[in-house]
Amino acid sequence: MRPGVRHVLDDTTLTSARPDGVAETARLEPGEVPKILEEVFGIVLDAAATSGLVAALAPKTS
Questions:
Q1: Are 15 and 24 a contacting pair, CB within 8 Å?
Q2: Collapsing DSSP states into helix, strand and coil, what is residue 7?
Q3: Is residue 50 very low, low, confident or very high in pLDDT (cuts 50, 70, 90)?
Q4: Is 43 within 8 Å of 50 (Cβ atoms)?
Q5: Helix (H, G, I), strand (E, B) or coil at 20
Q6: Inter-CA distances, 25 with 16, 19, 40, Å
Q7: Of 45, 50, 56, 48, which Cα lies nearest the Cα of 12?
């Protein structure tokens, strides 16, 4: 986590807003979200939660 930077994770979209008003947005693959949760937000998921989250975020096919 970077001081002064506000991070928002909405589904698979990560937005990082700096105090100067500049915002960066990145689209993540479902498999990247658990790593971002840990590295950016300090949230560590166990294997079962990781699998469930990745499956829930995966694009739905008809």
A1: yes
A2: strand
A3: very high
A4: no
A5: coil
A6: 6, 15, 14
A7: 56
